[in-house]
Design a protein that fits this description.
Elements (H helix, E strand, L loop, with lengths): L2 H4 L3 E7 L5 H8 L5 E6 L8 E7 L2 H11 L13 E4 L5 H4 L2 H8 L26
Antiparallel strand pairs: 1-3, 1-4, 2-3
């Protein structure tokens, strides 16, 4: 999938009821397109629950945003949800892992230190990269 088709696939959903489950969000948003990921932010203050919903395409995300913003309500929420395209799409919001792996291929595999190679009584070591 081209990078342009991957941009804008992640939605921020705010004003959710406390303790909302991933399954509830999936059931609600799957009518707007194929959902690839749901992340409910843990440890939010009471009354400030939010989540991120990632769709397969930016068109599906835009459709969900236009259909749900300030209209969608969940039981236990004090007001309609705020639904917007997430400002920071994150690394995997724009490029999938299969598209990123080739970027690291020129460096080759990173050798791992064997436990016999590392002295357990040695302190921290400085590594200069550059």
């Amino acid at each position: 999938m081209a990078q342009g088709a991957r941009e804008g696939r992640k939605l921020f959903v705010g004003s959710l009821p406390d303790g909302i489950a991933d399954e509830t969000l999936i059931a609600t948003f799957q009518q707007y397109g194929q959902i690839e990921d749901v992340f409910v932010k843990p440890g939010c203050e009471p009354g400030r629950q939010s989540a991120f919903v990632t769709f397969a395409t930016n068109q599906q995300a835009q459709y969900a945003k236009e259909s749900c913003d300030r209209v969608l309500t969940f039981p236990g929420a004090g007001r309609p949800c705020e639904v917007m395209i997430a400002r920071n799409q994150g690394l995997f919001g724009q490029q999938g892992p299969q598209e990123i792996s080739p970027m690291f291929a020129p460096a080759g595999p990173v050798p791992r230190a064997r436990s016999a190679d590392v002295a357990s009584d040695a302190g921290p070591r400085k590594i200069h990269v550059g």
